[in-house]
Design goal:
The structure is a single chain. The radius of gyration is 19 Å and the shape is globular. It is an alpha+beta fold. A hairpin with an 8-residue loop joins strand 8 and strand 9. Helix content is 36%, strand content 25%.
């Protein structure tokens, strides 16, 4: 079978997904809404080869063990089932994202895998089917099939849980400044953290209500390009998600000292008249939602605080793409 190469971008959830209703199918407790980002992406090539005796998975030039590649092989098995084949695959992936540090590397990785593997197997899946397939590798990957603002509709089973574009072509001059405060793998994975919050936080039932209210409020604000309302909602939603980590038993946190300092800097900038808001996923890295006109002020401030190499600027990005050229560094 021919090789297929796909690129998918990361997304940052503005209204968070935190907790599964079904851990096997990765059905979320709530819906969520995200923004796909242009700067962080994964390129993945897949070839089904009858000469192989097992799946071979290479990520960033390193071969993964069967244990480390378990989730990748699970998605490949789903593709094989749909394509009615038993042929093993060669998967080569390059992550242009700090892995497992709260920048949604798994979202771009599994969205790219779903797109490349399905096409390499001869399947022609529409974007809804791709979104459902990507979800089986990583929940947030379901949103990275689409560009711009994306809503993951929680649904109640495999057929009804998938992402839909909310506003795919973003003309609003907004940006996201990513502060890479710790590029290392986090100690508590998203899956571990979610399960702990769902089962032990006394505030989890209230979280479901918060998400429903935030989704209802943020969607008209996006359409109206109301920057302060969108920013206020995404910042408070992030802090309420992280309150679930602090209220779990035992408690855990994704923040470090630099996270707290960066959040204070955002508050200081806002008090001084520069409109910006922060959000964090499951990791210490802070993302700053801002308007393009304020990028010089914001990037200069954080470059002075943390170093210019740790300040990355992203804008709204595209959905999944298929590439014709081989992967290069």
């Amino acid at each position: 079978m021919p090789t297929s190469i796909a690129r998918a971008h990361t997304n940052i959830a503005l209204v968070k997904y935190w907790g599964k209703a079904d851990t096997d199918l990765i059905i979320p407790q709530t819906s969520s809404l995200s923004l796909t980002l242009d700067q962080f992406y994964t390129d993945t090539s897949v070839t089904f080869d009858e000469r192989l005796t097992a799946d071979q998975v290479v990520v960033n030039h390193q071969s993964l063990s069967p244990t480390a590649s378990r989730k990748v092989r699970h998605v490949l098995d789903l593709v094989r089932h749909q394509a009615q084949t038993t042929t093993f695959a060669q998967v080569t992936s390059q992550n242009h994202v700090p892995t497992a540090a709260g920048l949604a590397s798994s979202a771009s990785a599994f969205a790219a895998l779903a797109a490349a593997a399905s096409r390499a197997a001869g399947l022609t899946l529409d974007r809804t089917a791709l979104s459902r397939l990507a979800r089986r590798g990583s929940g947030s990957a379901t949103r990275s099939i689409f560009g711009g603002f994306v809503e993951w509709q929680a649904g109640h089973d495999d057929a009804t849980s998938y992402a839909v574009p909310f506003q795919e072509h973003v003309t609003w001059p907004i940006a996201m400044v990513a502060l890479v405060l710790d590029p290392h793998r986090k100690k508590v994975s998203s899956r571990q953290g979610m399960q702990a919050s769902v089962t032990t936080s006394p505030y989890y039932p209230a979280w479901r209500q918060v998400v429903a209210q935030d989704l209802a409020a943020i969607k008209p604000a996006i359409l109206a390009q109301d920057f302060p309302i969108v920013g206020t909602i995404l910042e408070s939603n992030a802090m309420r998600m992280h309150a679930l980590t602090l209220s779990a038993q035992p408690a855990y946190s994704y923040f470090n000292g630099d996270s707290l300092a960066a959040m204070q800097t955002v508050r200081d900038l806002r008090a001084a008249g520069t409109a910006c808001y922060y959000t964090l996923d499951a990791g210490p890295n802070v993302k700053v939602f801002c308007q393009a006109a304020d990028l010089p002020t914001i990037t200069q401030r954080f470059s002075a605080q943390f170093g210019a190499d740790r300040v990355l600027v992203a804008h709204p990005g595209p959905g999944v793409q298929w590439l014709s050229e081989p992967l290069t560094d």
